[in-house]
Amino acid sequence: MSADYALYGEIAVITFNNPPVNGLGLATRTAAVDGLRRAQEDPRVKAIVITGAGKAFSGGADIREFNSPKALTEPTLHTLIRTAEESAKPVVAAIHSVCMGGGLELSLGCHYRVTLPGAQVALPEVKLGLLPGAGGTQRLPRALGLETALDMIVSGNPVPSEKLPALFDEVFGADVDLVPAAVAFAAKIADVRPLPKVRDRQAAHADPAAFLQDARGRVAAAAGPFPAPLECVETVAAAVTMPFEAGLAFERERFMHLIGTPESKALRHAFFAEREAAKVPGVPADTPRRPIERAAVVGAGTMGGGIAMAFANAGIPVTVLESTQEALDRGLAAIRASYEGTVRKGRLTPEQLARRIALIGGTLRYEEIALADIVVEAVFEQADVKEAVFRQLDAVMKPGAILATNTSTLDVDRIAAVTRRPQDVVGTHFFSPAQVMKLLEIVRGRATGNDVLATVLALAKKLKKTGVVAGVCDGFIGNRMIEQYVRQAGFLLNEGCTPAQVDGAIERFGFAMGPFRMSDLAGNDIGWAIRKRRAVERPEITYSRTADLLCELGRFGQKTGAGWYDYRPGDRTAHPSAEVDAMIAAHVHGLGHAPRVIGDAEVVERLVYALVNEGARILEEGIALRASDIDMVYLTGYGFPLFRGGPMFYADTVGLPAVLAAIGRFAAGPHGEAWQPAPLLARLAAEGRGFNDR
Ligand code: NAD
């Protein structure tokens, strides 16, 4: 039973009881419909109140029923809403805290709605590439008018209940006890007939045709590749152009269409992937966590500054430690300048700036950070420098402090081994700019404690980041895969592409930025240093020479005003470079083969399947816990197009046999040595399975 039934004198009260947010799953729907029927049959009952126990009225459809036949089992949400709407006795929705999706649609089928202020009211379906499919597109415009309803349905964003007076028959005071107040309201209206129904109203607007025409243009421009926002407009339009029942049927049809689109599937995948990423085997939800009340960061460079800001933005006081006063002053000035830029853009008030700056301190002395609950090391990427820092931390930090490293490529286990507390050492790999980027790769060392992992996963959430756990290997999940992608981009230059052609193709596929523009932003010298190291450690790995030749020209990227592209002072726009074109042409000439014309499709396959193949290895080695974690890394840290759901999900939609066949073709091509298919990919393709249904 996941809804309770009680009598308050002549008023029946049905209370959803399906934690955490009273999702309208099958058991809850059944109990609610039973309650409504029982109230009809009981001659003592004059009116009915529907409300929710705990932290919500209702968060909507039960996501645990997504992709399961239960969602379509009677009583469906439609049936529940109709039972309320057709009740011969008045039904009052008593709303508090959260009223979203199906919960709001149900309340629109009730005859009356009462609420406490501050309830979050939303139809968020568009965020999963869908539209409200239980009458929301037809009833909300009739309740709130065309304009407000369209805004809510197209954006999916919550609106506090007190800002929607037209939706409610009464907004109580904040300190009112909701159920008794709703019962009193129900008693007051118990005899009023006819029963008011939202469906009988008109969707108000002075000039609906002009408004909708304008909305179509506006929404189409903002929707990008996603079909759902425009479908929302069309179904809301039906609330004015069609009779109610026809509108409902149209809504149903468009909902069923959207549910099958790859864009909606990708968004739903990403939604679940984010939740899954927080679940780590061996680290159950009740694993004890260490308190994080103050933080420290070692190194106030690009990353250290951003990481300090991420802490301050979450309200956590943080002290930055540097090796010289000059570097410290420079680092703190950069933090201030970055915040001031945000204030100029109007995204931060001067008061917020002052509060955040006040949370950030600086020091040159380890003793001053000794009491921090977590310290994140972000010094130069050199093993000896980092190991010296960790020896110091081991000597001074209080017992139980978490010692984290932001290393991109070094071995977390080796770093942990220089301390006497390897269980407290963990990798926290932030992405640049660290105060903005959502991804946090959490690197689990051999000895990392489960409570440390649980604490850092919770901290990621507090910092508003998506934490994804990775095992120890060179590059972890994200950078290990991107190396193969960038390697292919280089080979494409050897075979006849220009940087702009490669970037253009992958950006048309949907990436935020192609590999060459990305390298110019990050600094081409970083990859150069890595390749020099690789040349010693693993000389068998081949690369296009073009990236080294570029660095030999001093073209390190945006920071030197020239990289794969030319840049004008103070402008990040990438302009194709005659010098680079000539360098590449001379290199290709020297290779002794004729350049060929390479189409967008091949560029995309070469780059994306390079990610997929390496991702399969990472999965098989257990570096990533699941395919969806890899997708999360790429969606939140590398600008992979959200509407394609991440590289592994995308490979599943293409079909692994097709991916494997393409890899086979590339293996027979000019840089075939880079294309041994991952055994896991070959096995899943043979078994007719995908990465995400392992
Ligand atoms: P950076 O050169 O901008 O900053 C390093 C800072 O550390 C400098 O300010 C330096 O003065 C300071 N420092 C050096 N030795 C120190 C010591 N012994 N004690 C205190 N401070 C010391 O480098 P960065 O780009 O911020 O990178 C820092 C770390 O983050 C590296 O491990 C890097 O691999 C990693 N990382 C970088 C990026 C990126 O995009 N730049 C992304 C993820 C991770």
From TrEMBL:
Pathway: Lipid metabolism; fatty acid beta-oxidation
Protein localization: Peroxisome
Gene Ontology BP annotations: fatty acid beta-oxidation
Catalyses which reaction(s): a (3S)-3-hydroxyacyl-CoA + NAD(+) = a 3-oxoacyl-CoA + NADH + H(+)
Annotated keywords: Fatty acid metabolism, Isomerase, Lipid degradation, Lipid metabolism, Lyase, Multifunctional enzyme, NAD, Oxidoreductase, Peroxisome
Domain 3-hydroxyacyl-CoA dehydrogenase NAD binding: 295-470
Pfam families hit by this protein: 3HCDH, 3HCDH_N, ECH_1
GO molecular function: (3S)-3-hydroxyacyl-CoA dehydrogenase (NAD+) activity; enoyl-CoA hydratase activity; isomerase activity; NAD+ binding
Main location, first listed in the record: other
Cross-referenced CDD domains: crotonase-like
Domain 3-hydroxyacyl-CoA dehydrogenase C-terminal: from-to ranges: 475-567, 603-689
Protein name, UniProt field: 3-hydroxyacyl-CoA dehydrogenase
Species for this entry: Pseudoduganella dura
UniProt lineage: Bacteria, Pseudomonadati, Pseudomonadota, Betaproteobacteria, Burkholderiales
